[in-house]
Amino acid sequence: MTDLPPKRPNDSRFEKRFLFGSDPGLREKYINFHGDLRFGMLMEEMDSAAGVIAYDHTDGFDKDLTIVTAACDRIDLLCPLQSDRDLRILGQVNFVGRSSMEVGLRMESKTPNGWELVSRAYFIMVARKDEHAFQVNPLQQETEEDHRRQEEGKARAELRKRSARAHYLRTPPSAEEGALLHELFIETRGGTSEGIPMAATQRQTTILMHPQNRNIHHKVFGGYIMRMCFETAWAIAHLFCRRRPLFIAVDHFDFFKPVEIGSIVSFNGLVTYTGHTSFLVEVTVEVMHPMTGATEVTNVSYFTFVAADEQRRPTPVPKIIPHSYEEGLKYLDGGRRYKAGKDIKARQVEVD
């Protein structure tokens, strides 16, 4: 199908408001024991918004399409969320491939001076029909801003391809990275390393997937998987730094396969890399088959946190130490993601 009518970004533009400032009952559903907004629940809302936008762009319901989340490319939290302020999520399609779309989302908080950007996210949505990829409508840019978003979306797509090719399961460490692994090995063997073994940070959450968390296709809602991954990562972060962890970013969140209702699912996480005050947590989602004992990975995600004191000031964290070759590769991968995330934040420019 090549004669699909082009769609404008405005055709699928989305907005949803959360009246936390005036609705105490709503606020109560979204706050944690610190009185802060539960970002995992807001991630769930983001995934839902991305799905609505993708269906609108493709007329997916009319065509009986299945739109799935292939990945969350990145989420950045730019400043603390205020639980007593109204919040809104805005979104639109930024860029389309043949059967995929990048949906850009903004989260804004209401201030006395207007709406303030507090978070941005990019979701990759894929259209399918009868188990096959389905072509989506081309995107018609009308404004300079539309063109800018498209070019940035193209650049992110190319970066995803390069990152996938450079993954540690496909590409061996560079000479510099190999030297770093050897240095860590010598420190560990000689007993001179000061830090926490990577394996000591590992934690697991295992739950049964109930129908209350299903999507319109009767699979587990991707946003719920995101929320559970975030909350697992936050718990790991809290236990690791022994302080209040402040969420900074989702580096990447992959959706490899849908999760069936009734599945027994394990969320496995550990700290893979540490900076001075910030660190990276990897969470892998596995579906476990009780009759055979086999496991199948459905999702992998990466979260960056900062350790903070009671005044929300960054505080140093212990160094993480890998003790096996696999852990060493995870450490190198975490370091790449950590540094790339810093570069991305340094280049980011706020846009309306």
UniProtKB/TrEMBL annotation:
InterPro entries: HOTDOG_ACOT (IPR033120), HotDog_dom_sf (IPR029069), Thioestr_dom (IPR006683). Signal peptide: none annotated. Keywords: Hydrolase, Repeat, Transit peptide. Pfam families: 4HBT (PF03061). Residues 10-131, 199-311 form the HotDog ACOT-type domain. GO terms for biological process: acyl-CoA metabolic process. PROSITE patterns: HOTDOG_ACOT (PS51770). GO terms for molecular function: fatty acyl-CoA hydrolase activity. This is HotDog ACOT-type domain-containing protein. It comes from Sulfidibacter corallicola. The lineage of its organism: Bacteria, Pseudomonadati, Acidobacteriota, Holophagae, Acanthopleuribacterales.
